[in-house]
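User: C-alpha coordinates in, sequence out, please.
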Protein backbone atom coordinates (compact mmCIF):
# COMPACT_ATOMS: atom_id res chain seq x y z
CA UNK A 1 0.00 0.00 0.00
CA UNK A 2 1.24 3.48 -0.87
CA UNK A 3 2.08 5.99 1.83
CA UNK A 4 3.04 9.62 2.16
CA UNK A 5 4.96 11.19 5.02
CA UNK A 6 5.47 14.85 5.92
CA UNK A 7 8.29 15.96 8.21
CA UNK A 8 9.55 19.25 9.56
CA UNK A 9 12.83 20.16 11.22
CA UNK A 10 12.51 21.09 14.92
CA UNK A 11 13.90 24.55 14.18
CA UNK A 12 11.06 25.10 11.68
CA UNK A 13 13.52 25.78 8.85
CA UNK A 14 12.74 22.98 6.41
CA UNK A 15 9.81 20.79 5.43
CA UNK A 16 10.24 17.47 3.64
CA UNK A 17 7.59 15.15 2.27
CA UNK A 18 8.13 11.79 0.62
CA UNK A 19 5.74 9.40 -1.09
CA UNK A 20 5.88 5.78 -2.14
CA UNK A 21 3.47 5.82 -5.08
CA UNK A 22 4.40 2.47 -6.65
CA UNK A 23 0.85 1.09 -6.54
CA UNK A 24 -0.63 4.40 -7.76
CA UNK A 25 1.61 4.46 -10.82
CA UNK A 26 1.07 0.75 -11.45
CA UNK A 27 -2.69 1.40 -11.35
CA UNK A 28 -2.32 4.30 -13.82
CA UNK A 29 -0.26 2.08 -16.12
CA UNK A 30 -2.88 -0.66 -16.00
CA UNK A 31 -5.83 1.74 -16.53
CA UNK A 32 -4.30 3.71 -19.40
CA UNK A 33 -2.10 0.98 -20.95
CA UNK A 34 0.80 3.41 -21.01
CA UNK A 35 4.07 2.92 -22.91
CA UNK A 36 7.24 3.25 -20.78
CA UNK A 37 7.68 6.98 -21.51
CA UNK A 38 3.99 7.67 -20.82
CA UNK A 39 4.23 5.62 -17.61
CA UNK A 40 7.28 7.62 -16.51
CA UNK A 41 5.82 11.05 -17.36
CA UNK A 42 2.37 10.39 -15.92
CA UNK A 43 3.91 8.51 -12.98
CA UNK A 44 6.24 11.38 -12.08
CA UNK A 45 3.39 13.87 -12.25
CA UNK A 46 1.20 11.58 -10.10
CA UNK A 47 3.98 11.48 -7.46
CA UNK A 48 4.26 15.28 -7.62
CA UNK A 49 0.47 15.66 -7.42
CA UNK A 50 0.31 13.50 -4.31
CA UNK A 51 3.08 15.49 -2.57
CA UNK A 52 1.73 18.89 -3.64
CA UNK A 53 -1.84 17.93 -2.76
CA UNK A 54 -0.84 16.79 0.73
CA UNK A 55 0.89 20.14 1.20
CA UNK A 56 -2.20 22.22 0.45
CA UNK A 57 -2.84 24.12 3.62
CA UNK A 58 -6.52 23.22 3.95
CA UNK A 59 -8.54 20.04 4.10
CA UNK A 60 -10.82 19.20 1.16
CA UNK A 61 -8.69 21.32 -1.16
CA UNK A 62 -7.88 20.23 -4.70
CA UNK A 63 -5.01 20.66 -7.06
CA UNK A 64 -4.81 20.31 -10.82
CA UNK A 65 -1.38 20.06 -12.49
CA UNK A 66 -0.99 20.01 -16.24
CA UNK A 67 2.13 19.63 -18.32
CA UNK A 68 1.51 20.77 -21.88
CA UNK A 69 4.64 20.34 -23.92
CA UNK A 70 5.26 20.21 -27.67
CA UNK A 71 6.27 16.53 -27.57
CA UNK A 72 4.36 13.44 -28.78
CA UNK A 73 2.83 12.68 -25.34
CA UNK A 74 0.45 15.62 -25.60
CA UNK A 75 -0.91 16.84 -22.27
CA UNK A 76 -0.18 15.08 -19.00
CA UNK A 77 -2.76 15.98 -16.38
CA UNK A 78 -3.06 15.07 -12.71
CA UNK A 79 -5.67 15.97 -10.11
CA UNK A 80 -4.72 15.63 -6.45
CA UNK A 81 -6.42 16.35 -3.14
CA UNK A 82 -5.26 17.42 0.30
CA UNK A 83 -5.22 13.76 1.44
CA UNK A 84 -2.54 13.02 -1.17
CA UNK A 85 -4.86 10.95 -3.36
CA UNK A 86 -4.43 11.41 -7.11
CA UNK A 87 -5.72 10.52 -10.55
CA UNK A 88 -4.48 11.45 -14.00
CA UNK A 89 -4.24 10.81 -17.71
CA UNK A 90 -2.02 11.48 -20.69
CA UNK A 91 -3.28 12.40 -24.19
CA UNK A 92 -1.20 9.79 -26.03
CA UNK A 93 -0.58 6.86 -23.67
CA UNK A 94 0.94 4.72 -26.44
CA UNK A 95 3.61 7.32 -27.29
CA UNK A 96 6.88 5.78 -28.51
CA UNK A 97 9.67 5.55 -25.92
CA UNK A 98 13.23 6.67 -26.50
CA UNK A 99 16.11 6.16 -24.08
CA UNK A 100 19.19 8.10 -22.97
CA UNK A 101 22.58 6.46 -23.50
CA UNK A 102 22.59 5.38 -19.84
CA UNK A 103 19.41 3.34 -20.40
CA UNK A 104 17.07 5.79 -18.64
CA UNK A 105 13.75 6.69 -20.27
CA UNK A 106 13.95 10.02 -22.09
CA UNK A 107 10.90 11.69 -20.56
CA UNK A 108 11.80 15.10 -21.99
CA UNK A 109 11.61 13.68 -25.53
CA UNK A 110 8.02 12.60 -24.83
CA UNK A 111 6.93 15.76 -23.04
CA UNK A 112 8.80 18.19 -25.28
CA UNK A 113 11.19 20.98 -24.34
CA UNK A 114 8.82 23.87 -24.91
CA UNK A 115 5.53 24.23 -23.16
CA UNK A 116 3.76 25.16 -19.96
CA UNK A 117 3.37 23.68 -16.52
CA UNK A 118 0.12 24.90 -15.02
CA UNK A 119 -1.13 24.50 -11.45
CA UNK A 120 -4.61 25.31 -10.20
CA UNK A 121 -5.16 25.26 -6.42
CA UNK A 122 -8.80 25.14 -5.44
CA UNK A 123 -9.70 25.54 -1.77
CA UNK A 124 -13.42 25.10 -2.40
CA UNK A 125 -14.18 28.73 -1.63
CA UNK A 126 -13.27 31.92 -3.44
CA UNK A 127 -11.43 32.00 -6.74
CA UNK A 128 -8.94 29.19 -7.40
CA UNK A 129 -5.25 30.17 -7.53
CA UNK A 130 -3.79 29.72 -11.00
CA UNK A 131 -0.06 29.66 -11.68
CA UNK A 132 1.95 28.71 -14.71
CA UNK A 133 5.58 28.57 -15.73
CA UNK A 134 7.36 27.66 -18.95
CA UNK A 135 8.84 24.15 -18.95
CA UNK A 136 12.50 24.13 -17.93
CA UNK A 137 13.49 20.64 -19.02
CA UNK A 138 10.39 18.53 -19.67
CA UNK A 139 11.69 16.02 -17.10
CA UNK A 140 8.94 17.24 -14.71
CA UNK A 141 10.78 17.38 -11.34
CA UNK A 142 12.80 20.44 -12.43
CA UNK A 143 9.65 21.96 -13.86
CA UNK A 144 7.89 21.58 -10.50
CA UNK A 145 10.90 23.18 -8.75
CA UNK A 146 10.72 26.09 -11.19
CA UNK A 147 6.98 26.45 -10.57
CA UNK A 148 7.48 26.80 -6.81
CA UNK A 149 10.37 29.23 -7.22
CA UNK A 150 8.63 31.44 -9.77
CA UNK A 151 4.95 31.20 -8.97
CA UNK A 152 4.88 30.63 -5.21
CA UNK A 153 8.33 32.04 -4.27
CA UNK A 154 9.13 28.93 -2.20
CA UNK A 155 12.68 27.56 -2.58
CA UNK A 156 12.02 23.90 -3.35
CA UNK A 157 13.84 20.74 -4.27
CA UNK A 158 11.75 18.14 -6.06
CA UNK A 159 12.88 14.62 -6.94
CA UNK A 160 10.58 12.18 -8.74
CA UNK A 161 11.27 8.67 -9.93
CA UNK A 162 9.52 5.87 -11.78
CA UNK A 163 11.41 2.63 -12.33
CA UNK A 164 10.05 0.46 -15.14
CA UNK A 165 11.12 -3.15 -15.69
CA UNK A 166 13.21 -3.35 -18.88
CA UNK A 167 11.77 -6.74 -19.85
CA UNK A 168 8.01 -6.54 -19.28
CA UNK A 169 7.76 -2.72 -18.95
CA UNK A 170 5.88 -3.03 -15.64
CA UNK A 171 6.22 -0.38 -12.94
CA UNK A 172 8.55 -1.65 -10.23
CA UNK A 173 8.96 1.41 -8.01
CA UNK A 174 7.69 4.97 -8.02
CA UNK A 175 7.97 7.80 -5.58
CA UNK A 176 8.95 11.35 -4.90
CA UNK A 177 10.49 13.77 -2.47
CA UNK A 178 9.64 17.44 -1.97
CA UNK A 179 11.84 19.63 0.23
CA UNK A 180 10.91 23.24 0.96
CA UNK A 181 12.66 26.01 2.84
CA UNK A 182 10.30 27.68 5.26
CA UNK A 183 10.23 31.42 5.92
CA UNK A 184 12.99 32.41 8.34
CA UNK A 185 15.38 29.57 7.47
CA UNK A 186 18.90 30.75 8.37
CA UNK A 187 22.06 30.61 6.27
CA UNK A 188 23.41 27.61 8.19
CA UNK A 189 20.21 25.62 7.51
CA UNK A 190 20.40 26.47 3.81
CA UNK A 191 24.06 25.44 3.65
CA UNK A 192 23.39 22.14 5.42
CA UNK A 193 20.44 21.39 3.15
CA UNK A 194 22.36 22.20 -0.02
CA UNK A 195 25.03 19.70 0.94
CA UNK A 196 22.41 17.02 1.70
CA UNK A 197 20.68 17.63 -1.63
CA UNK A 198 23.96 17.37 -3.53
CA UNK A 199 24.56 13.95 -1.94
CA UNK A 200 21.01 12.71 -2.49
CA UNK A 201 20.58 9.53 -4.54
CA UNK A 202 17.60 9.08 -6.89
CA UNK A 203 14.37 8.21 -5.00
CA UNK A 204 13.97 4.83 -6.72
CA UNK A 205 17.60 3.96 -5.86
CA UNK A 206 16.86 4.65 -2.20
CA UNK A 207 13.68 2.52 -2.37
CA UNK A 208 15.63 -0.29 -4.02
CA UNK A 209 18.10 -0.15 -1.11
CA UNK A 210 15.20 -0.68 1.28
CA UNK A 211 14.79 2.91 2.50
CA UNK A 212 11.36 3.78 3.91
CA UNK A 213 9.80 7.14 3.11
CA UNK A 214 10.85 8.28 6.62
CA UNK A 215 14.44 7.18 5.89
CA UNK A 216 14.33 9.26 2.69
CA UNK A 217 13.17 12.37 4.57
CA UNK A 218 15.79 11.83 7.27
CA UNK A 219 18.48 11.46 4.60
CA UNK A 220 17.38 14.70 2.95
CA UNK A 221 17.35 16.40 6.37
CA UNK A 222 20.58 14.90 7.73
CA UNK A 223 22.03 17.07 10.50
CA UNK A 224 18.60 18.44 11.53
CA UNK A 225 16.25 17.20 14.27
CA UNK A 226 13.31 15.75 12.35
CA UNK A 227 9.71 15.64 13.55
CA UNK A 228 7.05 13.66 11.70
CA UNK A 229 3.95 15.78 11.00
CA UNK A 230 1.83 12.96 9.58
CA UNK A 231 1.98 9.69 7.66
CA UNK A 232 -1.04 8.69 5.59
CA UNK A 233 -2.05 6.06 3.04
CA UNK A 234 -2.51 7.45 -0.48
CA UNK A 235 -4.32 5.93 -3.43
CA UNK A 236 -5.29 6.33 -7.07
CA UNK A 237 -8.82 7.61 -6.54
CA UNK A 238 -11.29 8.65 -9.22
CA UNK A 239 -14.31 10.57 -8.02
CA UNK A 240 -16.39 10.18 -11.18
CA UNK A 241 -20.05 9.27 -10.82
CA UNK A 242 -23.18 9.03 -12.91
CA UNK A 243 -24.45 12.18 -11.21
CA UNK A 244 -21.33 14.20 -12.13
CA UNK A 245 -21.45 13.03 -15.75
CA UNK A 246 -25.15 13.88 -15.91
CA UNK A 247 -24.59 17.36 -14.52
CA UNK A 248 -22.37 18.13 -17.54
CA UNK A 249 -25.23 17.36 -19.95
CA UNK A 250 -27.75 19.22 -17.85
CA UNK A 251 -26.03 22.51 -18.61
CA UNK A 252 -26.41 22.12 -22.40
CA UNK A 253 -29.10 23.71 -24.56
CA UNK A 254 -31.43 21.14 -26.17
CA UNK A 255 -29.98 21.35 -29.71
CA UNK A 256 -26.45 20.70 -28.43
CA UNK A 257 -27.75 18.02 -26.11
CA UNK A 258 -29.36 16.12 -29.02
CA UNK A 259 -26.05 16.17 -30.93
CA UNK A 260 -24.43 14.24 -28.08
CA UNK A 261 -26.82 11.29 -28.47
CA UNK A 262 -27.29 8.78 -31.32
CA UNK A 263 -30.54 8.21 -33.25
CA UNK A 264 -31.79 5.92 -30.48
CA UNK A 265 -31.17 8.65 -27.92
CA UNK A 266 -28.26 6.78 -26.32
CA UNK A 267 -24.73 7.83 -25.57
CA UNK A 268 -21.74 6.36 -23.81
CA UNK A 269 -19.34 8.52 -21.82
CA UNK A 270 -15.96 7.26 -20.71
CA UNK A 271 -14.20 8.81 -17.72
CA UNK A 272 -10.77 10.03 -18.80
CA UNK A 273 -9.22 9.27 -15.43
CA UNK A 274 -10.40 5.69 -14.82
CA UNK A 275 -11.95 4.64 -18.17
CA UNK A 276 -15.22 3.70 -16.47
CA UNK A 277 -18.09 3.80 -18.99
CA UNK A 278 -21.46 5.42 -18.33
CA UNK A 279 -24.47 4.74 -20.57
CA UNK A 280 -26.99 7.55 -20.70
CA UNK A 281 -30.35 8.00 -22.39
CA UNK A 282 -31.58 11.37 -23.64
CA UNK A 283 -34.90 10.83 -21.80
CA UNK A 284 -33.00 11.45 -18.56
CA UNK A 285 -32.54 15.09 -19.62
CA UNK A 286 -35.75 15.98 -21.44
CA UNK A 287 -38.91 16.57 -19.56
ZN1 LIG B 1 -13.48 7.95 -13.25
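Assistant: Sequence out:
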Amino acid sequence: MDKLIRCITSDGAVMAAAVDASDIVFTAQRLHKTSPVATAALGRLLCAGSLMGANLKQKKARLNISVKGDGPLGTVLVVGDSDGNVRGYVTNPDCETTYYDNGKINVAAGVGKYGILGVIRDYGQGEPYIGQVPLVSGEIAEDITSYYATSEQIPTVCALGVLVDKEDERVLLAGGLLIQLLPGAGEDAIEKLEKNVADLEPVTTMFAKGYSILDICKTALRGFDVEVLDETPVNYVCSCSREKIKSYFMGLPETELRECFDENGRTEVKCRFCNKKYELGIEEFLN
